[in-house]
Structure formats: structure tokens, C-alpha cells
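User: Continuing from earlier, I have the next pair ready.

Assistant: Great, send them over.

User: Here they are, in order.

Assistant: Folding the first of the pair now:
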Amino acid sequence: MYLNAKVFFTNLILSLIGVVMILVAIFGFNFSDGWTFLFPLPAYSAGLYGKTGALLFLFGMLVLGIGYLVMYFYLAARLTKEYGGLHKTLGWDYIFGRKEGYGPPPATVATTMVIITNSIAILAGAFVLVASILNIINPAITIDPMLAKHLTYAFGHIFANCTIYMAVIAVYEILSKYTGRPWKSNKAFLIAWNASTIFTLMIYTHHLLMDFAVPKWMLIIGQVLSYANGLPVMVVTAYGALMIVFRSAIKWNFASTMMFLSMLGWVAGAVPAIIDATIVVNHVMHNTKWVPGHFHTYMGMGVIAMIFGFMYYFNNTEGTQTQNSLDKFSIFTYFIFFTGLTGSFLYAGKISAPRRWAEHLPQWTASDQVGALCGIFIIAASLIFTIRFMAGLKAVGKQDKTEILKSAS
């Protein structure tokens, strides 16, 4: 299935415009917020620092969402045309026994799951963003704050989860290339991705476990599904990675190593996340650095590792980049010190160091210093990755020119 470059270029341009608007709002107009743009806080900020910063931030977030929806709707249309419906790209024909054998490629299954869940998440976020924009323009226009909080956290948490599910496509494709073994969509694989499609839409409620006004049944569902969501896709993917590599005579290089180690980061990050989703633990730990501990584990050692691995794979296959000793050293440095960084976060959470505080008590600063030291080495390793990637792009360009000249002659 060939993809439309114009659609992805549109997504890129809208994303860049949205990011620039957000940065201008923050650094140019002193607007202070994150993806947790909880209503009516943007209006309070507008009252303190002026409406321009708040509106730039909110419109920037909205433009980002529109960019992603353009891409998702295009992919949904292409997949529907190719397979006859999104239910078929999720493998329902194979799950319910109407077809035998293996389902659609793993990349197709994962893409469908992200299209469904993240489109819903972005639309939920867009509803709150538009309501907040209208409230700033006309304070008489309001929205129920509890509804707004649910929609906001549904947007943010689902979007964060979907970055993992989209990036893991690279693991499926690249490990298959290096091992020479196809990653097949068996029934267990398809059931796991379908289950995660449902669970991902509800597990945001573990962010609301401290809200007494939320119905208890919803909090219980949030805890149960948070436990359940941590298993299906993660288990079949991590187990699949082990099985596809086992006795495969895989050629280990930067890309294959990063893809394989990213499975470790994903699994390791999910464990403290599941612990935090327990109601009695959440009441004590959720506003501590335990949460950025688990988040940075599966994002930094999971998603970002997948992205760096894909960057090297691209330069290696499209250009002439080969692995050297500096690459091996940077991989070792990245994972060792990222383990130290996330360990410092989790330990800080264990001793109840709060997150989002500008200053810490003396008994909390030791873990901060360890994390800062580890961060220096992580930045150094990331710079090596990036510089090597940029240098490799030149080789890609030269190879493209050479192929064009050969074909012309």
C-alpha cells in the first residue's frame, strides 16, 4: 500500500506550526501550562498575563491535533479501501473463525488501533480546547470542570500510550528484517491488540483516583483496566521479540540492538505504572516523582530507543552508514544512565519527593543530583546518535544521486 507524501507533509507542517505557537505562548507571553490544560485554568492565566499567550497555546494544541487527524483519517480511508473495513484490519475475520491462517501484518493492526484510539482522544481534547478558547473570549461560555478534566486526561493519556503503539511498528518490521523471520499476526496477537484498543480508551481514569467526586465504579474500572492493559500487547510483543530473535543468527548492530533493548524499556516502565494504578498506592504516590519515573522509563528507554533505532536503520539501508565503536559506546551509555535517571525518579517517589515542585527539601536533593548527572550522559549519547544520523543523511543523498545518474546513463 503506497502512502501519500502530501498528507504526511501536511501533518509535518501543521505540527511545526502548532509547536511554534506553543513555544511563542510560553516564552513570549509567559503562559504556563502543559497538556493538562485543565479548565478553567487557561482563563485564569489569561487574566494574569493577557489573552494572547493563552489563546496561542490553545490554538497551537488545536492545530497539532488537526495535523494528526488529517493523517489518521487518510490512513483509515486507505486501510478501509485495502482491506474492506477497520474491523478487518484488526483481524476480526481471523479471531471469529471466518478465515484461517494469519491476520493482516502487525504494522496494519497496530496502525488501526492507533487510528481508532487516538482519533477519539484528539476529538476529546479538541472539545475542551474549543470550550477554553470560547471561555477566554466570552467568560459567559463555560463547561463543567469535571467533564473537562475527564476529557483532558483521556486526551493526554491515550495520546501518550499511542506513541508507544505506533513506534512499536518499527520493532515488528526491523527485527523481522534482521532475523529473516516474518512477524505473524496469530490469533493471540490479534486478540491482544483488540483488547488494548478497548482498554486504552478507559485507563485514563487512574489519573483521577484521588478525585472524590468521580463515581467509584469508574475508578474501579480504571484500576482493573490499567492492570489489564499492561499485559496483552506488551506481553505478545516482548515475547514475540524474544521468540523471533531466539536462535535466529541475527546480525546485531545499532538498529537491531536498540529495537531489542526498547522492549526491556517498555516492560520495565509498565511495572511501576501498574503499581501506581492501584488505588491505595495511587493516593500516596501519584503526585510524587514515582510517576515521571515510570513515564521516562517506557518513553526514554522504549519509544525514543525505537526512534533512534529506526533512524540508524534508515541511514543503513538507504545510505552507506555502518556501525562503529562510538555507536556501541553510545548505546551502552544511553541505557546505563537512563536506568540511573529513572531509578533516581522512582527512588525519589519512594521517599515521597513531590513532582512539579520548583524547590526540594534537603533530604530529596541527593536523588535530584544523581538524576542530573545521569541526564548529562544521556544528552551526550543522544547528541552522538543525532550527529551520526545527520552525517548519514548526506550519504543517503549521495547514494540517491548516484542511482539517478546510473539510471540516466
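And the other member of the pair:
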Amino acid sequence: MNSLRQLFDDDSIPAAVRAQLKNQYASVQQLIEKLEKQQIHIVAYGKVSTGKSSLLNALMGSHHFAISPLHGETKNNQPLDWQSMQQQSIVLIDTPGTDEFDGEVREKMAKQAAQQADIVLFVLAGDLSESELNQLNLIASPEKAVLLVLNKSDLYSPDEIQRIQQSLNEKTQHLNVRLVTAASDPRPQVILIQQPDGSEHQETKNVDPDVINLKNEIWHILEQEGKTLSALNASLFATDINRQVAENIVQLRQNAATKIIKTYCLAKGIGVACNPIPVADLLFAAGIDVAMIRQLSRLYGLNLSKSDAAKLTATIMAQLALLMGAVWGVNLLSSALKTVSVGLSTTLTATAQGALGYYATYLVGKIAQQYFAQGNSWGDDGPKALAQSIVKKLDRNSILQEASDQIMALLKNKPKK
């Protein structure tokens, strides 16, 4: 529970990440409450009309969960206290069917409930279909208690049940599941009664549900693992949430870094376009790049001083200069000029040089971003290899085109003095 509380109370997690994982954080709060109340959650999961609700009613011994011959009777996850064992409260939870027409939201709710459950009753009305096996593969794990419940066993002959059980065992031999049979809502029996006069008439007799095997399996699991089930599943859920938080933080940083880089690229591009400098010096017009690297460092949890940012900028630029060599100016200026097709010749030249400035800063920003994302490290192969991989990965011409379009639009709209 401590890991869940630390996750829930961690102030270092950005508000944007919490907003994106709103449903997961609600689940964290529910798990904390579940652990405090020492609850075991048993979730019935499966397709519509497999008898999930009637199965839980049979376990309860009362009709609490709504049942209907129509699909989609269960609209949301419905919990109900069952009984207690070893000071732990047992809660039965019904879920919507996983194959309802236009029921994606309810299916997502059902999957989430199954993932958080301590015991899953995967309810079947017959042999496993391909879609059911795919669902079972997602839910079952070595740490999860899953009971594969062949419900409606009264509809089959003993030979048919044996064949279905054999098929189920073959299809699930790679999974940690236990197979049990049940008849949660058996068909009434028709009995022929002979009268004293020799005539016969039919009577219908209701049959009690048969869930004794299922109950015994549940109690066996709880006796063996009851005290550790909740803690184990809570720990697994906390680990999964931590992974999602980390992934979202990485994505947020990447998005923010891209915005920062493009802002400084445009500033460099416009500055160079309005105040042209020799093409060979574009890599070393570093004032804007230093400011960009300082802002990127803060995004990744650092706060580089101006001198440290200048050193990092110089290292990156030196690697780019080595990579580009003498062909930097001629080749890139030619590429940039090709991207511009309208405007006066002076505007053409200014836009081309501005696009080169934009591209140079884009390279510096992307290399710095990767350096910070790797924990302020160049990696095992050093700065040259990192710079080379970034240069190869980026589409130079599309970046120059984007730069030219933006700079040209701004130059055209620039007020005349």
C-alpha cells in the first residue's frame, strides 16, 4: 500500500500527466481503499449471455445482479459484498459483456475491472472462441488467480462436457488457469407422473443452481493465497501505473522540447534572414542556440548556467562541423534555394540563408534533447556518433521546406520602414 500512496502523493508528477491518467489515478485511490478495508475482489468477466450475472447470484444465494435474455443488461461494473473469510471482506463484481454491439466503453470498464481483480471468473457458455482466447491471454498471468468457468453445464451431456473440457485444457495449457464447471441457472426438469388410473401428466420442477465446485475452488484459493492476493495485485498495478507515468512524462517532455526547438529555430531563421551572415559561419552564430539549450536543460530537470550551456553548444557545433565539413555551405545553400520558388531575388537569398540558420539550430536542439534524455550522457559511442545518428535520422529537405515557408511568410508580412 505504501507504493500506491507514494504514487498518489508524488508532487513531482506533472499535472498534465495526472490529467492524462485520470482514470488510472481513480483506480489507485480505489485500490488504496480496498487494501484499507482488507477486501478481496472477485470479478465475473466474459461475453454477453454466458451467465455472469446469474453465476454471481448463485454464489450469493439471492437475486442481486440483474439478468435478462437481452444483450447488454449489465451497463457498468456492479460490486456487492459477499461474505468474509479470515477477516477479509469478499466483494463480487459483475461486468458488462465484452462483445456488446457499440459497447466499447463498457468493454473497457470490464477489462479494467478484470486487471485489478484478485480472482477472475472467466465465464464461458461452451468451448473457447478465438476472441475469448485472445482476451484470456491478456488477463491471465502467473500472478493472477483465474478460474475458467464452464457455465450452463446442464445444457450438455457428460460426453459433451468431457470433450469441451479436453479442448479447453489444450487451448489453455500455456496459461495459469483452473477449469471448473457450473450451472448457475439450470433449465427446469420435466417429470412424467403416472396417475392411479394409468394416465400420465407432465410436471415442471425447478433445479437448484450447481456452483459447489466453483465455491470450493474460490475457498481453496482464499485459504492458500487470500492474504497475499490483494497486496500482490496492488503492487503489480502500482508498477504498471509507474510505467505509464514515466511514458507520459517522456512524451510530454518530447512534445515540449519540440516546441522549444522550433521556437528558437524560427528566431534564428528570421534573425539570419534579416541580417545575412556568411554561410560558413551559420553553425557558429550560437547566441540563440545557447539560450535554447539552457531552456531544454530546465525541461529535463537541470538548470545549466550560461557558461555550461555555451560549452555544450560548442561541443555539438564542433561535431556538426566535422560531419558537414567543407560541403556544408555549398550543398545546403543549394538545397535551401531549391525550396523557394517565389519572391524577389533578395528575398530568395535571405529566405535561403534563414532556412539554413533554422536547420542548424534544429540539429543543435535535437542533439541536445537526446543528450538530456539519456541522462546528460553522449552514450557509449560519444558525441560524434550521437550527432551522426541525429543527422541521418532527420529529413533535411522537409525541415528546410518548413523553414522556408515560415520565413517567407513572415518576410512578406514584415512592415516596410
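Worth noting for the second one:
The first strand starts at residue 39 and ends at 45. Residues 37-210 form a domain with the Rossmann fold fold (CATH 3.40.50.300).
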